[in-house]
Design a protein that fits this description.
Length: about 120
């Protein structure tokens, strides 16, 4: 079976802040708006959906939460993206070559505390 794409749905507390973060700040295209409370963003290889659920579902963030990674083409692109957004968001870790993995990346936090990584895998 070949899966043409996938989407992961994640709860958020304020959909407008989430849309601003992922679309306006990070530049991810909005693939679909299914309601005023649910937006799906195109990452290029799959989709991330964020929903402000009416049952007040809590985000899956924090130390035991989810890490959302975006792969870039080079270390230079990672640094360029970092310089572009570092003053407009909460930086969790600046760009670094990881000692245990062939990965150069940085981490930021979205409005709900989801860890978002921009990386180049060697």
């Amino acid at each position: 079976m070949r899966v043409p794409s996938s989407v992961i749905f994640l709860p958020c507390t304020d959909i407008q802040k989430t849309v601003h973060f992922y679309h306006e700040l990070l530049g991810l295209p909005i693939e679909q708006k299914q309601s005023d409370n649910l937006f799906i963003f195109d990452t290029g290889y799959g989709y991330w959906g964020f929903c402000q659920y009416k049952d007040s579902r809590k985000p899956l963030s924090g130390p035991q939460g989810v890490c959302l990674s975006i792969n870039l083409n080079s270390n230079e692109e990672v640094i360029q993206k970092y310089e572009e957004i570092k003053d407009a968001c909460t930086v969790y870790k600046a760009p670094v070559q990881h000692p245990d993995f062939p990965v150069f990346s940085f981490f930021i936090l979205d409005p709900d505390g989801y860890l978002v990584e921009f990386q180049k895998v060697a």
